[in-house]
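Section 5: illustrative case.
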C-alpha cells in the first residue's frame, strides 16, 4: 500500500492537502510547493500522525504561521504537520491563559487585554503562533516567552505527550530545550498579572507604533534575519559594513532596518539565501563577527 493510503488510515483525508504553495504560507512569500501538509484538529489526531511517521521512520517538518521560515524554491518533499488555526483555542482561568499551540500571539494578547491581564503586551506584534514562539523563545522590547510561561505541553516523536514547567524548557536567547528536536508543542499555560485595561492598550499601541516606525512591515520578510550576536546589534554591524539597501535579485537589505532582509516583490528563496551569505561574508570581513541566521531554512 502506498504511504499516503496508510496515512489515510490514521487521519481523515480531509485533514490533508497536497501540492500546496509555500509562498502563500510563509511571510517571506517565497518557496516552492509542499508535497503534503497535514492539519490535525485534535491532540489525538496529532499523536496518530506522529506515531505513524515514527514507525515508518519518515522525517517531517512542523509549521506554525511560517513567519520565521525560508523555504526552498524547489519545494518540500517531507510531509509537513501544520499546528495552526485548527489548533488554536484560548482559555482563561484566574491570571493564567491556557492556549493551544496554533493560537496567534496577537490573539492571546487580545484575550489578555479583554481580561485585564498584563505581561503579554511585548508579544502582541510578533506574527507567529504560540508553538513557534515557544520553540525559539520569541521576544521583543525587553520581554520574552521565558518571562511568562508556566507550563508547556508537547508530544515527542513517538507520540507520547508530556507537560513540563517553564524552567524545564531551559529558555535562552532564541532557544529552548525543544529547539532542534522533533518534538511538537501542543499548548502552554501563560501566567500574567492583574492589570489595567487602559494601560495595557496604551503599551500595545506604543509598541505597535515603534514597530511601524522602525521595521519594514510593508514588505514580506521573516522579521530579523539574524540573531543578535553577543555584545552587538546585527542591524548596526550590517549598516556599518555598507550593506544597507544591498540588493540581489528581488531580495534587499531593508533601507529602513538593516537587520531585516525583505522581499521587494519578486524575490526567490535563492536570492534571499545569496544575500544572507553575502551579508555574513562582508560583516565578517569588516567586524570579524559571524552572524547566525534566526530564520529557519527548509529544503
Ligand atoms: C514582521 C515580523 C516581525 C517579527 N518580529 C519578531 C520579534 O519581535 N521577535 C521575535 O522573536 N520574532 C519575530 N519575528 C519572527 C517570528 O514571528 C517568530 O519567530 C515566531 O515565533 C515564529 O512563529 P511561527 O508560528 O510563524 O513559526 P514558523 O515560522 O511556522 O516556524 C518556525 C520554527 O518553529 C517551529 N515550530 C512552529 N510551530 C511549532 C510547534 N507547535 N511545535 C514545534 N515546533 C514548532 C518550526 O518547525 C520552525 O522550525 C517576526 C517576523 C516577522 C515577519
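Designed sequence:
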Amino acid at each position: 500500500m502506498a504511504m499516503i493510503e496508510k496515512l489515510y488510515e490514521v487521519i481523515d483525508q480531509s485533514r490533508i492537502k497536497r501540492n500546496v504553495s509555500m509562498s502563500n504560507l510563509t511571510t517571506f512569500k517565497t518557496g516552492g510547493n509542499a508535497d503534503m501538509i497535514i492539519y490535525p484538529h485534535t491532540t489525538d489526531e496529532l499523536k496518530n500522525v506522529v506515531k505513524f511517521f515514527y514507525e515508518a521512520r519518515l522525517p517531517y517538518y512542523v509549521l506554525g504561521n511560517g513567519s520565521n521560515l525560508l523555504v526552498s524554491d524547489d519545494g518540500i518533499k517531507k510531509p509537513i504537520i501544520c499546528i495552526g488555526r485548527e489548533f488554536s483555542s484560548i482559555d482563561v482561568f484566574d491570571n493564567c491563559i491556557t492556549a493551544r499551540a496554533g493560537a496567534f500571539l496577537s490573539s492571546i494578547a487580545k484575550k489578555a487585554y479583554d481580561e485585564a491581564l498584563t505581561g503579554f503586551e511585548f508579544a502582541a506584534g510578533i506574527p507567529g503562533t504560540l508553538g513557534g514562539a515557544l520553540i525559539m523563545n520569541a521576544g521583543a522590547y525587553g520581554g520574552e516567552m521565558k518571562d511568562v510561561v508556566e507550563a508547556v505541553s508537547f508530544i515527542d516523536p513517538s507520540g507520547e505527550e508530556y507537560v513540563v514547567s517553564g524552567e524545564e524548557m531551559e529558555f535562552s536567547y532564541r532557544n529552548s530545550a525543544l529547539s532542534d528536536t522533533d518534538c511538537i508543542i501542543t499548548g502552554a499555560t501563560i501566567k500574567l498579572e492583574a492589570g489595567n485595561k487602559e494601560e495595557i492598550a496604551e503599551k500595545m499601541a506604543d509598541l505597535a507604533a515603534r514597530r511601524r516606525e522602525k521595521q519594514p512591515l510593508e514588505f514580506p520578510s521573516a522579521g530579523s534575519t539574524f540573531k543578535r550576536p553577543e555584545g552587538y546589534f546585527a542591524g548596526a554591524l550590517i549598516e556599518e559594513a555598507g550593506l544597507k539597501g544591498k540588493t540581489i535579485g528581488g531580495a534587499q537589505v531593508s533601507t529602513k532596518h538593516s537587520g531585516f532582509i525583505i522581499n521587494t516583490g519578486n524575490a526567490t528563496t535563492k536570492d534571499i539565501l545569496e544575500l544572507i551569505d553575502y551579508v555574513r561574508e562582508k560583516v565578517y570581513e569588516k567586524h570579524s563577527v559571524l552572524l547566525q541566521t534566526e530564520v529557519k531554512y527548509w529544503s
